[in-house]
Design a protein that fits this description.
Layout: H1 38-45, H2 59-85, H3 98-108, H4 117-134, H5 136-172, H6 181-189
Helix pairs in contact: 3-5, 3-6, 4-5, 5-6
Length: 209
Amino acid sequence: MFSRDKTSGKGVPDAPATPAPEASDAGPGGKGRPTPRRKDAEAANKRPLVPTDRRTFGTGDKAARKAMRDAQREQREREYRAMQTGEERYLPPRDKGPVRKYVRDYVDARWNLGEFFLPVAAFFLVAQLVLASAAPGLAAIALLVLYVYVIAAIVDGFVLWQLLKRRLAARFGAERVIRGTWMYAVLRAFQIRPSRLPKPQVKRGQKPE
């Protein structure tokens, strides 16, 4: 009797649902790629900045590094030989120049109290330890003698520099006596002669050229 309402949703099969479009990161403000997992991100952060596999470098890089190492080794060998022979060309910068050579020759030609400081100090310190219990008076005297020697060595170094400074000013000009030359001379005077570098090139009493 009653006609079926064709417009009604009853009795009409449902239309297949259209899947909602997934949110894409490629839109405005998106990254254009899926968000990496935390594990992958941490692994990427732990990658070394310098690759550990040296095979990735080209042959040219290896050859350049080898050439640089060879050049550095040859430079060290030349400096070592120059330290033994006094060859000016290959000396380190701190030892180069006619002023530094004159300072070395002047110090090496002279008897310096400072060069015997280490053996003298060792002798008197041992003597003080040995005599501390057996003869305290002698131990005190040994310590006093050591102090006197230290003061005498300092005074001798001061006299050395005053004489050397006059010679340098007369020979090279006062402007060539730069700061640091006095330390170079005094430190060499306080070294034992066989341990000095560059090696002494003059004998005792021989005036520098």
